[in-house]
Amino acid sequence: MIFKAVGEARPYPEHGCRTPRDWGVIAPQQVRLDHLITTQRMLDLSTLLHDDSTFYGDLFPHVVRWNGQLYLEEGVHRALRSALQRRQVMYARVLDMDGAEVADRG
């Protein structure tokens, strides 16, 4: 199995990171694919297979840590690409809602 689980929605409250600039202040870190829970069940296959799929937007997937779990909020196609290349980890921006990082975002 590629992911820990496949979800259908975001179980955590609104975190306030909406723009690439909001996410850009979070340094990327390695995360294991098998520790991630997706927040979307469907994926557009053309997005996965397109060469320029990471040209627009953030190069790093967005992950939210909530109640000790890691939720893949954006970047499922990047994670699947990593899995297809037989990688077990990828770099992602991890917003820690379990810690004090969110308190500063108000």
Shape: globular
Radius of gyration: 13 Å
DSSP summary, beta strand count: 6
Count, helices: 3
Widest β-sheet, arrangement of strands: 1-3-5-4-6-2
H/E element order = EHEEHEEHE
First-residue to last-residue Cα separation: 36 Å
Report mean pLDDT, rounded to a whole number. Answer: 84
User: Which spans have pLDDT < 50 for at least 5 consecutive residues?
Assistant: 102-106
Helix content class = 10-25%
Could you characterize what this model shows?
It is globular and about 30 Å long. It is built from three helices and six strands. A hairpin with a 2-residue loop joins strand 4 and strand 5. It is an alpha/beta fold and 106 residues long. The longest helix has 9 residues, at 76-84. The chain has a six-stranded mixed beta sheet with strand order 1-3-5-4-6-2. The chain has helices at 20-24, 45-49, 76-84, and strands spanning 5-6, 28-32, 36-38, 62-66, 69-74, 89-96.
